């Protein structure tokens, strides 16, 4: 069974939709962008989120102390590094027993090897599609794929790459708002693959 992360959660309604669909991971974005939330909002949403769904904090070149503060608050249980963080950052965070997802682009042949999970994304969460047919990835860690995935292309991506997880944000939105029906449909579909 392929697992799924629904990212970019911002509202109580987003949490209700995720609780109902029950993906394997839920993502809060602390980096600049349309889906950015602050720690106060993340704490409020985490309290409402099903306790069995781990929450991932997404950061881009954030200072280590800041990431540790957010992790220590209880808002997140994993950290996703989506910038140019180095191997030392991964090691420091892992020393605090924090599972780390390290993002890399298709052009990078050697992603950070010490992260707990590796995520292939086409850009910086910008919704760019990856040509899955041209990608060949071999990793020891579980692989997560992202990049303009939606109900129409997720099956092809999974059957081509065989990732452990898929990550969706915009692909489960309608008019820039998380769509409970889209979330439910794609979680059910992915869990069947």
TrEMBL record:
Domain of life of the native organism: Bacteria
Pathway field: Amino-acid biosynthesis; L-tryptophan biosynthesis; L-tryptophan from chorismate: step 3/5
UniProtKB keywords: Amino-acid biosynthesis, Aromatic amino acid biosynthesis, Isomerase, Tryptophan biosynthesis
GO molecular function annotation: phosphoribosylanthranilate isomerase activity
A Gene Ontology biological process term: L-tryptophan biosynthetic process
Enzyme Commission identifier(s): 5.3.1.24
InterPro entries registered for this protein in UniProt: Aldolase_TIM, PRAI_dom, RibuloseP-bd_barrel, TrpF_fam
Catalysed reaction, written as an equation: N-(5-phospho-beta-D-ribosyl)anthranilate = 1-(2-carboxyphenylamino)-1-deoxy-D-ribulose 5-phosphate
Domain N-(5'phosphoribosyl) anthranilate isomerase (PRAI): 4-187
Family indicated by similarity: Belongs to the TrpF family.
Record protein name field: N-(5'-phosphoribosyl)anthranilate isomerase
Gene source species: Companilactobacillus mindensis DSM 14500
Gene: trpF
């Amino acid at each position: 069974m392929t697992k799924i992360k629904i990212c970019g959660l911002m509202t109580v309604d987003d949490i209700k939709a995720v609780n109902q669909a029950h993906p394997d991971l839920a993502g809060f974005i602390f980096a600049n962008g349309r889906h950015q939330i602050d720690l106060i909002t993340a704490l409020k949403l985490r309290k409402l989120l099903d306790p069995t769904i781990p929450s991932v904090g997404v950061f881009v070149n954030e200072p280590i102390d800041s990431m540790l503060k957010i992790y220590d608050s209880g808002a997140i249980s994993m950290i996703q590094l989506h910038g140019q963080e180095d191997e030392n950052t991964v090691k420091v965070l892992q020393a605090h027993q924090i599972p780390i997802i390290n993002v890399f682009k298709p052009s990078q042949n050697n992603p950070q090897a010490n992260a707990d999970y590796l995520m292939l994304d086409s850009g910086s969460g910008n919704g760019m599609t990856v040509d899955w047919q041209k990608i060949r990835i071999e990793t020891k860690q579980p692989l997560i794929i992202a990049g303009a995935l939606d109900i129409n292309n997720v099956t092809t991506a999974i059957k081509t790459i065989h990732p452990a997880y898929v990550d969706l944000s915009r692909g489960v939105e309608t008019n820039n708002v998380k769509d409970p029906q889209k979330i439910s449909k794609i979680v059910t579909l992915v869990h069947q693959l």
